[in-house]
Amino acid sequence: AQKITQTQPGMFVQEKEAVTLDCTYDTSDPSYGLFWYKQPSSGEMIFLIYQGSYDQQNATEGRYSLNFQKARKSANLVISASQLGDSAMYFCALRTGANNLFFGTGTRLTVIP
Amino acid sequence: ETGVTQTPRHLVMGMTNKKSLKCEQHLGHNAMYWYKQSAKKPLELMFVYSLEERVENNSVPSRFSPECPNSSHLFLHLHTLQPEDSALYLCASSQDWGLMGSSYNEQFFGPGTRLTVL
Question: Do the chains contact at B106 and A46, CB–CB below 8 Å?
Answer without folding.
Answer: no
